[in-house]
Amino acid sequence: MSKQKRKIHFAWWVLLGIAIMVGLARGGVMTAGGLFLSPVTEDLGIGMGSLSLYFSISAIVTMIFLPFAGKLMATFNIRVILILGVILQAGSFAMFGLMNSVWGWYLFCIPMSMGSVFVCQMAGPILINNWFKKHNGLAMGIMVASGGLFGAILQPMAGNLISSEGWRYTYIFLGLLVMIIVIPTVLLTIRMAPQQKGLQALGSEEITTDQPSTTQTTVAKGVTASVARKSSAFFALVIFFVCITAISSFSQYVAPFAMSVGYDVSFAGSAMGGWQIGTLFGALSFGLLTDRIGAKNTAICAMILGLIPVIILIAVPSNKTMFTIAICIYGFVVASVGTLGPLLTTALFGNKEYGQIYSTAVMGLAVAAMVALPIYGFIADTTGSFTVILYAIAAMMLINILAVTYAFIGKKKLEAAGLWN
């Protein structure tokens, strides 16, 4: 018995595989796109706004493909799906290195986005929920943090490669690197369910013996989706989602912004590494902070903290040390996207029909990503500066403080009306 207890549960190996897969796919492909904007537009003579439209196309494809992805993952072998997903995502990213027209990005971002739905968005939460009945929150935090960890390594490396070898080589190198590492990792570590290994989920024995009625009571409390969608709290939550997504979308423009104030692409890659380090610590911190001071106070504190890097980037962008510090803090703040959104939804509307409420509110994320990314690019093209964008980001942080405050006033109205039960 003691030997069995000391044996590492296979769930942890699954989590290791998820962390490597998600970390490389996010840190090496999804968040690396911004490093290429300036080199590609300068080399091919196209506008930054025109090139950044591929981000919007990616957001549209992701929104359309998400429902189909869930059904495919439930039907076919998870490893086959993920290997195909990695080939689509990383392979399409590598193909960007062979393109000579902006239409190449518009075309290949479609299979890239379809692959990323499997690899970066769907697989991790599904597998963690299957394998972890205990330490589920910890596993989710590790998965989110893996993107920051790998990004902190890959972003500076990509910046140096673009500087020394060119953007074409770097696209191809990163795409191939992700495929070469992730495909064997998936084959060795990923299984859809514990039963495939003759096991139970980690902690399932404890949950079976603990009081099941407590869980049932917790799940039942809250507001119905039909009531929530008509409430002022829901309207305010959608505004928060839209603004926080637009704020985080600036990650794709950190490198162009750095180069616009006189830094080279190598330093821009290092700055993006700082962003990823901030994201890493933010992903691990916001859940813990919410447990201590609540989702409302955590969200407001995050927005106030976010004003600090924006002020630094407006006031002293030419100071390398201050620039790097600002980008690290900014990365820390935008890590709240993955944690505060779900936590605010639960705090406002409970768990009664959480899935239906959150899936509707989260549409704001896709809409904001579609709109903000090209708008930022066109503003930069028109004004030759990112200052207007930074002022807009500061304004959205202030709007979010008001939106969160108003959302919880709306929650009190629902409780007073007897609709929150």
From TrEMBL:
Signal peptide limits: none
Keyword Transmembrane helix recorded: yes
Superkingdom as given in the UniProt entry: Bacteria
GO MF annotation terms: transmembrane transporter activity
Subcellular location: Cell membrane
Keywords for the protein's UniProt record, in alphabetical order: Membrane, Transmembrane, Transmembrane helix, Transport
Membrane topology, as annotated: Multi-pass membrane protein
Cellular component aspect of the GO annotation: plasma membrane
SUPFAM superfamilies named in the record: MFS general substrate transporter (SSF103473)
InterPro entries named among the record's database cross-references: MFS, MFS_dom, MFS_trans_sf, Proton-linked_MCT
Keyword Ribosomal protein included in the entry's annotation: no
Ranges annotated as spanning the membrane: 12-38, 44-68, 80-99, 105-128, 137-157, 169-190, 234-255, 267-290, 297-316, 322-345, 357-379, 385-409
Residue ranges of every copy of the Major facilitator superfamily (MFS) profile domain listed in the record: 11-412
Gene3D superfamilies: MFS general substrate transporter like domains (1.20.1250.20)
Predominant subcellular localization, coarse grouping: membrane
PANTHER family hit by this protein: MONOCARBOXYLATE MFS PERMEASE (PTHR11360:SF290), MONOCARBOXYLATE TRANSPORTER (PTHR11360)
Protein name in UniProt: MFS transporter
